[in-house]
Amino acid sequence: MTMSAVGSHVHELPWQVWIRTATVHDVDGLTDHFGALSQGARGNRFMGAVGNVARIAQECLARNRSGDRFTLVAELRESAGHSIVGEASYAFDREAGWGEFAISVADRWQGQGLGAALLAALQARAVSLGYFDLFGETLKTNEEMHRLARRAGFAAARAADWRVVRFDKRLGS
């Protein structure tokens, strides 16, 4: 079993995957990850169709320059090289006092605990930065995310959009 580290928090994963903070050097890997997601997985991550995944990857990573935003990547390390197989993005809104997250996991890695590890790492990072109110939104049809959020202690709430479910959690309590 391989250990995956983010800051001082360690998550046990059954494969050679490391969760780390993304940098601007990850734009190609993140673009490849978003592009390789099935149409359904990409629709779930972005709550609809997307065209230019390279632009989205650049935006995710450019935002990391602010202390209120970060992206974590799950990187598969093999002798043939490294590839991103999951990501978790976070943005804190100072005026509203809460942070929003989004997660994607490569299709072949879904259901193996990677989403839970990414969400746990994201929550630990948010708390370490002093952010305690977290939410995410997903399509009502995204059962995988519904299960992941419930298992992670998020409470379902009504969203402004009728097609969406919101999940809220107070971290550190």
Describe this structure in words.
- Helices cover 30% and strands 37% of the residues.
- It has 173 residues and is an alpha+beta fold.
- It has a 7-stranded mixed β-sheet, with helices on both faces.
- Strand 4 (69-78) and strand 5 form a beta hairpin.
- Helix 1 crosses helix 3.
- The model is unreliable at 1-10 (pLDDT under 50).
State the gist of this model.
The chain has 173 residues and is of the alpha+beta class. It has 5 helices and 9 strands.
Please write the string of helix (H) and strand (E) elements.
Answer: EEEHHHEEEHEHEE
Largest sheet: 7 strands, mixed
Number of helices: 5
Quick check: average pLDDT? 86
Structural class: alpha+beta
- Shape, principal axes of CA atoms: globular
Helical percent range? 25-40%
